[in-house]
Amino acid sequence: MIVLICLKLMYFMRVSTNLAKIVKLTIRVFQDVAAFTVFMIFWITVFMQIYIITGITLFENQDETYAKLTSPVALWIQSFRNSLGDINNPVYTYWSDNENAHEVTV
């Protein structure tokens, strides 16, 4: 409903010459943001897949934040949050558990 009101308001704003420039600028901004959003979603998905391949988890003890989500979805959401600046250090339990697995005792 609010989106329709904004669209109708922008339609009527085109009557004035000065406001028509703002409407054109707003349309151009949304076009640019759409292209950026596709690019950003692609890279978030790439980082999520890198997390899965390297065995990175989000937390040592799974808390309530992502309890009902599958691991790939939780990793995607956390990658999105990391891209916005809400940085959460990943946990490398797979690698730290297997750190000494290559050592052979004689």
Structure description:
By secondary structure, the chain is an all-alpha fold. The protein contains four helices and no strands. The protein has helices spanning 2-13, 17-54, 71-83, 93-97. Helix 2 crosses helix 3. The radius of gyration is 23 Å and the shape is elongated. The model has no long low-confidence stretch (mean pLDDT 82).
**Number of structural units classed as domains:** 1
Helices and strands: which structural class? Answer: mainly alpha
Counting DSSP E segments of at least 2 residues, the number of strands comes to 0
Large-scale geometry: elongated
Percentage of residues in strands: under 5%
Question: How far do the termini sit from each other?
Answer: 73 Å
Major pleated sheet: none
The average pLDDT value, as a whole number, equals 82
Query: Helix count, per DSSP?
Result: 4
Question: Helicity level, as a percent range?
Answer: 55-70%
Provide the gyration radius in Å. Answer: 23 Å
Note the run of SSEs as H and E.
Answer: HHHH
| Low-pLDDT ranges | none
